[in-house]
Design brief:
Layout (H helix, E strand, L loop, with lengths): L7 H32 L3 E6 L4 H13 L3 E5 L5 H7 L2 E7 L7 H9 L1 H4 L3 E8 L6 H16 L7 E6 L1 E2 L6 H15 L6 E2 L3 H31 L1
Parallel strand pairs: 1-2, 1-3, 3-4, 4-5
Antiparallel strand pairs: 6-7
The structure holds flavin mononucleotide (FMN).
Flavin mononucleotide binds next to helix 2, strand 4, strand 6 and helix 7.
């Protein structure tokens, strides 16, 4: 018999060897992929907007974070899905007639237990000028209902300037703001835009750094625990 030929027994044994090797590689590959998924810490940036400035601000924060962050509109999410799917949260809302969006409060209140220690940052987008003492106090007041729903304050909180485009307002909002401007500001309602992409992106960078610190602390704690 020529040496190019192999016996039936040798053929079967080679097939078994190669296929078990490829099966092992396949399983190993799957395990590695799954391990990677499990280890990746996912962050959800949940925002509430009426006229878009908060969504834009959230997008700039996301850009500043330069990492795996999903932007989610509070109006479209399932509270149970997002708490199950993400490890960390950044929560932001516009401010309308004194307060943040009702659904943001509902989300934080109803998921308080699951969110414990996982809300990294909160932010508000508003018209109040934070350069004066009274303005800062008013802005602090916008954060109060958010903090009241959390077991501890987030690592970071920030306010950002928003925007009003008069012709985009609903009749109800235009009337409410007209009265507010006349009564408290003694001025005519006019359009304005104080959104600040750079400030938002810088905040994103800060959140990313704090998240990195938090993760390295929890990793070293886990290592210590597993060594004990
Ligand atoms: C009807 C209405 C009420 C508002 N009330 C407040 C307020 O009480 N305090 C404040 O700082 N800004 C207030 N603003 C300004 C908003 O916070 C600002 O327009 C912000 O950009 C809104 O977010 P959005 O563009 O994502 O909807 C109000 C704006 C509107 C339209």
């Amino acid at each position: 018999m020529s040496s190019d030929f192999i016996t039936r027994r040798e053929f079967l044994s080679r097939v078994c060897r190669y296929s078990s090797l490829s099966m092992m590689a396949l399983f190993f590959g799957c395990d590695i992929a799954r391990l990677g998924e499990g280890q990746k810490k996912k962050t959800a940036l949940i925002y509430a907007t009426r006229y878009g400035a908060t969504k834009e601000t959230a997008t700039w924060i996301q850009e500043g974070m330069q990492g795996p962050v999903d932007l989610l509109d509070i109006e479209t999410i399932s509270f149970s899905d997002v708490t199950a799917r993400y490890d960390h949260f950044i929560i932001g809302s516009g401010v309308w007639i004194g307060g943040v969006h009702k659904k943001i409060i509902e989300f934080l209140e109803s998921r308080k237990k699951e969110l414990s220690g996982r809300v990294l940052a909160t932010f508000v987008v508003c018209g109040t000028d934070g350069s004066t003492e009274s303005g800062r106090k008013r802005i602090d007041g916008y954060f109060t209902p958010l903090y009241a729903c959390l077991d501890k304050k987030p690592l970071l909180s920030r306010y950002f300037g928003g925007r009003v485009i008069v012709e985009n307002l609903t009749d109800e909002d235009r009337q409410a703001l007209t009265v507010f401007y006349k009564t408290y500001l003694r001025a005519e309602l006019r359009s304005w835009d104080r959104t600040d992409p750079e400030k938002a992106a810088l905040f994103g960078g800060e959140v990313k750094r704090r998240l990195g610190e938090k993760m390295s602390v929890s990793e070293s704690t886990n290592t210590l625990v597993s060594r004990v």
